[in-house]
Structures are given as C-alpha cells and as structure tokens.
Amino acid sequence: MPFKQLLDELIDSVPGASGAIIADWEGEAVDHVARMDDFELRVIGAHKGILLGNLRQVMSRLQEDHLQEVVIATSNAQVLILPVTQDYFLLLVTQRDAVLGRALYASRCCVEELKKEIA
Questions:
Q1: Which residues neighbour 85 within 8 Å (Cβ) at sequence distance 6 or greater?
Q2: Which residues does 47 contact at the CB level (< 8 Å), separation at least 6?
Q3: Furthest-apart CA pair in the chain: how many Å?
Q4: For 17, phi and psi rounded to 5 degrees?
Q5: Strands, sheet with 17-24, edge to edge from the N-terminal-most edge strand
Q6: Could you point out which of 37, 82, 94, 105 has its C-alpha 20 to 30 Å from the C-alpha of 46?
Q7: CB 51 within 8 A of CB 81
Q8: 83 Cβ partners below 8 Å, 6+ apart?
Q9: In this structure, is the dihedral angle defined by the CA atoms of residues 33, 98, 43 and 108, taken in order, positive or negative?
Q10: What is the Cα–Cα distance from 91 to 59, expressed in whole angstroms?
C-alpha cells in the first residue's frame, strides 16, 4: 500500500488530526498528508527529526532500550513521533484536544503497516 494511502487512513482515523508525515533520519519528508499548512508540516517534521536523533543518542548513552515513541503537547497541538525503522519515523500532528490514546493506537498500527512497506 502506498505511503500516502497509509497516512490518509491515519489522518481519517484520528479526529482532530491535521497532518502526518513519514520522514527519513534527517527529517526529510518521504511522503505526507496535510490538512494544515503544507510547509509548516514539513518544518515540524524536519525539526522533530533532529529531536528524535538527539533523544536516540541520549538513550544510547544511557544504554536504554530503543526509543518507541515521543509525545509533545503544546497549548495548541499534540505531536506524536514514532520510529518506524532506524532510518524512518512517523509524525502525527493533532489538535490539542484530540484523544491521545486513539492517536497513539492509530499511529502504532500505521507504523506496523509502514514497516511492511519498507521491508
């Protein structure tokens, strides 16, 4: 299944979702679906790619298990970052009042489908 279709299904399954992106380890967009400003979504993806890389380095130094997901909540939005492989990650942007549990569940399911596509 194409990445865009998986991202579309993710957005459709999470009320309040406004953008989803799959990016490489540098934060460069591979594919995305935006119901928000397209450029803003790409910038968020690039910035969160840097953040994910930094967090992975910290986890490695602490000799901890692999980072599984990151949730960032601001006054206006929630941003979920889920590694797909060592080289790719999924990012989902939702409104602040979106149900976090539903967004996490749908994102985890999407990651599993993305892993199948990447393999």
A1: 115, 118
A2: 27
A3: 38
A4: -75, 140
A5: 29-34, 17-24, 88-95, 77-83, 70-73
A6: 105
A7: yes
A8: 52, 66, 67, 68, 69, 89, 90, 111
A9: negative
A10: 19
- pLDDT tens, per residue, the chain with 119 residues: 699 999 999 999 999 999 999 999 888 899 999 999 999 999 999 999 899 888 888 888 888 777 889 999 999 999 999 999 989 999 999 999 999 999 999 999 999 999 999 87
- Residue span of the structural domain in which 92 resides: 3-118
Single-letter amino acid, residue 22: I
Number of domains the chain is built from: 1
- Could you say which DSSP state residue 64 is in? P
Q: What CATH number is given to the structural domain containing 79?
A: 3.30.450.30
Q: In 3-state terms, what secondary structure has residue 100? A: helix
Q: Spell out the residues 6+ positions from residue 27 whose beta carbon is closer than 8 angstroms to its own.
A: 45, 46, 47, 48, 49, 50
Which parts of 14-99 fold into alpha helices (H)?
38-61
Lookup: tokens for 73: 């909540």
